[in-house]
Amino acid sequence: MIDARGLACPLPVIQVQRAIEKSHPDTLEVLVDNKPAVQNVTRFANHAGYAVEVKELEDDEFSLTLTKA
Amino acid sequence: MKKESFIKRYWLVVLCGLVIGAAAVVLTALGNPKNMGFCIACFLRDIAGATHLHSAGVVQYFRPEIVGIVVGAMLMALVGKEFKPKGGSSPILRFTLGAAVMVGALVFLGCPLRMVIRIGGGDLNAIVGLVGFILGILIGILFLKKGFSLGRAYKQSKVEGLTFPVMLTFGFILTFIGVTFFAVSEKGPGSMHAPWYIALGIGLIVGALAQKSRLCMVGGIRDAVLFKEFGLLAAFVGILVAVLVGNLITGNLNFGFEGQPIAHTEWLWNLLGMTVVGWGCTLLGGCPLRQLILAGEGNSDSAITVLGMVAGAAAAHTLKTASSADGTGANGPVAVIACLVFILIVSVTHLRKEQ
Predict the structure, then answer these.
(1) Which of A53, B66, B213, B218 lies deepest, with the highest CB count within 10 Å?
(2) Mind listing the pLDDT tens digit for each residue in B284-316?
(3) Nearest 5°: CA angle at A31, between A27 and A32?
(4) B355: pLDDT confidence band, cut at 50, 70 and 90?
């Protein structure tokens, strides 16, 4: 799991990019705390061949589940 | 998966770019200095002068555009439920990086927005600046990829998030109800300005649009290189097109290096000044405009960065590092090198190994 809460742009995407390039996981969970990060991670994950499910948690936090398409 | 067309996905960024370009042309036609219709660095420097933080008599004016941008972003964020106060990620480093970015911008004479606006006016020195800007972003990206981070920000109170926009609004009201505490230039760029209500109105529109579109001059190049994401780059095109067309209509297009408005031809320092801006802003997570927008969204790290930029402008004029149309300031080159060394130290000392 990647906890990218509180990280400034573009660190959430970079962390996801690193994780995908390193181990090509089948699924990956990412926590973020702002909408631009949700959009940026989703866009990147889609490009990288992952489907993304977004769940809004409490306190303006989001959990993204990336699944290899 | 269905692919969205580029225009459909990025029309707001393109629109925002066009509006900024048009704003620059309109504000210039109504009184702002040439090729400086819309420049965050110049506006913050003028505010530093107005509030007596430096005593360069020609650049003192409480620019309503800045107030408009921050308040416009705040209102749009409140409407869209995106006003989320947070902060606490290396505040003093952000302040100092903001100051360094401003010192670099004032050696080149403009923020990334003015750089594009200058290109749109035919100023070829700004192309040199663009090369430096891209170079700075590329260096910043190298460190981002190696794990650079200024640390996490945490949730803050509403009052913390509102303080900066309210403070700016208060300063603006004091200025325009005729309280004479603030300085106003009688000659030079600070004396040239569009009517305050138009400047404020345009600032509000740009702030709201930039909040919604997330336009960022650093983000455009950064995301294109890092993720092959070209959406934010559309802003460059939007601004450039609007300024070129506007300058053609108003007859202000003049290609060349020499005799450009509020610019100098010392290419090395134009280049390195913008390298400081590109590198510093990549570490900060966004260009000067984006910092203003995030500050409007309640991000106190960005508010601190903007205050750092104001302090940097004050230092630049007090320590004679800012350029003028005659060339670099007496201490400009040494300041640029000092800023590069400082940013390098911040970069190498904030590489985090853990995921």
Answers:
(1) B218
(2) 999 999 999 999 999 999 999 999 999 999 999
(3) 135
(4) very low
| Cβ-defined contact of B144 to A11 (cutoff 8 Å) | yes
Total residue count of chain A as it appears in this document:
69
Distance CA B263, CA B271 (A): 13
Cα–Cα distance between B112 and B317 in angstroms, integer? 20
Tens of pLDDT, residue by residue over B92-135, are: 999 999 999 999 999 999 999 999 999 999 999 999 999 999 99
Which residues 42-101 on chain B approach chain A with CB closer than 8 angstroms? 82, 84, 86, 89
Q: Are residues B37 and B49 in contact, defined by beta-carbon separation less than 8 angstroms?
A: no
Give the distance from residue B207's alpha carbon to the nearest chain A alpha carbon, in angstroms: 16
User: Mean pLDDT of all residues in chain B?
Assistant: 94
What pLDDT, on a 0 to 100 scale, did the predictor assign at position B352?
Answer: 84
Q: What is the pLDDT of residue A60?
A: 83
Domain for residue B354, yes or no?
A: no
Classify residue B108: in a domain, yes or no. Answer: yes
B43: domain range?
A: 2-349
In this prediction, residue B3 has a pLDDT band, given cuts at 50, 70 and 90, of: low
Decide: pTM greater than 0.90: yes
| Residue range A2-68, CATH number | 3.30.110.40
CB B95 within 8 A of CB B225: no
Residue A54 tokens, joined = 């977004």
Residue B53 to residue B160: CA distance in whole angstroms: 24
- Decide if B102 is inside a domain: yes
**H helical segments located in chain B:** 6-29, 40-50, 64-79, 91-108, 112-120, 125-145, 158-176, 196-213, 217-227, 234-250, 267-284, 288-296, 300-318, 332-349
Residue B163 Ramachandran class (φ > 0 left, ψ -120 to 50 alpha, else beta): alpha
Token code pair at residue B125: 């020195």
The domain locations on chain A are 2-68
Query: B114 lies in a domain?
Result: yes
Q: Does B144 touch chain A (CB under 8 A)?
A: yes
Element housing A64 (H / E) = strand A62-68
Per-residue pLDDT tens for B333-354? 999 999 999 999 999 999 986 5
